Amino acid sequence: MSNREYPLYTIKNNCQDCYKCVRHCPVKAIKIEDNSAMIVPDLCIACGTCYKVCPAKAKQMRNDLTRAKHLVSSGKDVYVSLAPSWITEFEGVSQEQIIAAIRRLGVKGVSETALGAEEVSTNIAALLEKADRGLFLSTACPAVVEYIKKYQPDKVKNLTPVSSPLLAHCRMLKDKLGEHIEVIFIGPCIAKKIEADNHPDLLNLSLSFGDLRQWLKDEGISLKEINTSVFDKFVLEKAEDGTAYPIEGGMIETLKPYDKIKKAYLTQITGIENIKRELADMKAEDFSHPVFIECLACEGGCVSGPCITTKKPGLEKRIDILKETSFSPDIKNRTPSFDIKMNYDADGIPRPDFEEADIKRMLASIGKYTVEDEINCGGCGYDTCRNFARALLYGHAEPEMCVSHMKHQAQSKANALLRCIPSPIVIADSKLSILEYNDKFVETFWNDDEHADIYEKDNLHGADLRDFVSFTNLFSASLDLEQDIRREHIRHDDRLFDVVVFNIDKKQIVGGIMEDVTNVEMKKEQIAARAKEVIHKNLATVQQIACTLGEHMAETEVLLRSIARDFSSEPGGSDENITIRTKTNKGG
Q1: What are the φ and ψ backbone dihedral angles of 141, each rounded to 5 degrees?
Q2: What is the pLDDT of residues 158-187, one digit of tens each?
Q3: I need a surface site. Which of 120, 123, 404, 499 has the fewest CB within 10 A?
């Protein structure tokens, strides 16, 4: 069965790697795949715990609403089996209103699942009457049945051989109204979808209360404003004591009136974790009397089911249910009316028994080398480090799920970076107390005269950063502004620093990298001074050359003019025959 075909599945893009579903899943039916927590159908019992706790709504229930609409529009006679917990879900809505609204959707009629519950109680009473001793586990909750079949297969023989109230009700409807009818269940349970998948001959499909709300909205039907009529009644008859089934101990209350089972011990356990713990070492042969245990996957009963949206306290929901429950004096005389027998087969999940060497190898991969390293914090979602190691071997988990291991790795990487960066680094909190630093920071800013009497040079954790650097105003500003700050040539004592201050945790933790540029700047100044000296010398030389050239050109001009005049004064000489051009480059 593909993930989307199973009653529960994961929307991968919504998964936030919080592992909350892993922590809360009572059977660890979650596999981390491509950084998403995927449900493993073969391991899942459809209790809906992951659906309830997922903060990102990545866990979704299979949507069968479209199928329901198609079934109703097909023209077939469709009846709804309505869970008695509707009373706590639809506050302020009368029985007539809920029936009228559902009928308006196009169904033929609405009947109470609680009628099937009464038939189950009658059959169990008859079963306990004949029993001398032994352990009997209820089969009213399909999630519990799935758990027993998969995880405690040795207890399958202790499951009462009767169907659930829902399937008993379906048989009752078909017996009374005809085998041709189709049945849709509406209630607070996701596991009922498994019953629909496994028994399509009795139950077509299962919807949640949320599905019903959506269907009514799609059709523009208002529960509290709908008009009712005398025809808006439950099909067959009104249930009595069966309406107590949704609350913890409700099933037990329906059995108490039967005088014939007074020798039996009746008790209840709710919550898969509690069922797991209580049944683990329980053996039928240890009981000298018949012991019947009402088992429900949801703590408090079905009124706390995964598809219940009301935030009412459990006690208030319990009272609401009991108000609608009646215990007729005739209950003790009730006898089985229908054949609701059902046998259950073990479906134990094969689990490889890993060698100790394999477990230790996996533990070592997450930094657990000794028993002391196995802190069993539960951050990964598994109760012990060894169970997490087994999950790694199964391929259902990833090393990154180990919080302590990832924290240690992150710390190791951070320390390595601090050691390797050649510049001074310091990390401080909002009070400017030093959290982390590297050796270069101590080497650069430690001053025996100022610090030796106050701090230990080998341990500056918790020291006041203001005692070491004079520019802590940059750290404070970075915290206040929640911005990175860069400054060049910050003077501290007789040195210069290029400083980068950055936020690590806004308003809480800030870090700084300080590069000592004193020597670099001194070299720059020396080079600049030398360059200026050379420039001055060059300018002086150029000026001297210019002067010399200017003098020489002036003398040359005087000489040439004198020669020109001498030539022009001689016989035959004239200015027209002799032309002397002179050019004086006065600029040199």
Answers
A1: -105, 115
A2: 999 999 999 999 999 999 999 999 999 999
A3: 404
